[in-house]
Design goal:
two-stranded antiparallel ribbon, globular
Length: 225
């Protein structure tokens, strides 16, 4: 597919995300996403993050399989989770579940001087994502291979944490690695059952509050082999 096709598909994707934001406002409380979020989505080339045979449908507003039992999330969900982190630009962010690297790239585009540590349990995905992100010039993303349940204590605390697979409960290690005043977006629930995208906040005194945002369906969060 040529560049013109991708540009048109991207524009359509952005319109659909804006429409979905308005349609789900009764759940999320947000009728529109921040300009910083939408600009980040506009600059990331999603077709470079899917398997080549799926490139023609890369900007469709739906999840796609990326191999190893994992998926690249629906663009609207990527936008929603990014937006709820309320990034200002210079944060240190932890992502659990690198996958193909697309969500990390969107967050990187929303940052200005910040850094992302992205953790992937599947070694092959971690390797290819790191190569893909490096080839595209993302210098503020470090991909690690490890157990997402353990987080990445070497770089903690994190101003924001985003989890792109569903644990049945928020791991205590991730709560511990969230900085005071920080925010975490995480889908919670059992595999093939009702899951709820949840915003976890830690106040300056270290107290935790959690708010349900939207029913979702994510692959389960698994421990590293």
């Amino acid at each position: 597919m040529d560049a013109q096709h991708h540009e048109k598909a991207l524009a359509r994707m952005l319109r659909e995300i804006a429409n979905d934001a308005a349609d789900t406002a009764q759940w999320t409380g947000r009728k529109a996403f921040a300009e910083r979020t939408m600009k980040a989505l506009a600059v990331v080339k999603r077709h470079l993050f899917v398997q080549p045979e799926h490139a023609a449908a890369a900007y469709a507003n739906r999840p796609q399989r990326i191999g190893h039992g994992q998926t690249i999330s629906q663009p609207y969900i990527v936008a929603l989770m990014t937006d709820f982190l309320d990034l200002g630009g210079a944060e240190t962010v932890l992502e659990i579940g690198t996958g193909c690297g697309y969500q990390a790239a969107v967050i990187a585009a929303a940052l200005d001087g910040g850094h992302i540590h992205s953790l992937e349990t599947v070694g092959a995905l971690a390797e290819t994502a790191a190569q893909r992100l490096g080839d595209q010039g993302y210098q503020n993303i470090t991909v690690h291979h490890g157990d997402g349940y353990q987080g990445w204590p070497d770089a903690a605390p994190f101003d924001a944490i985003i989890v792109t697979a569903a644990p049945e409960a928020v791991p205590d290690e991730l709560i511990g690695q969230l900085a005071p005043g920080g925010r975490m977006m995480v889908p919670i629930g059992r595999p093939h059952d009702r899951q709820m995208l949840t915003l976890v906040r830690k106040d300056k005194a270290g107290r935790i509050a959690a708010d349900k945002v939207l029913p979702v369906a994510f692959v389960p969060m698994v421990k590293s082999a």
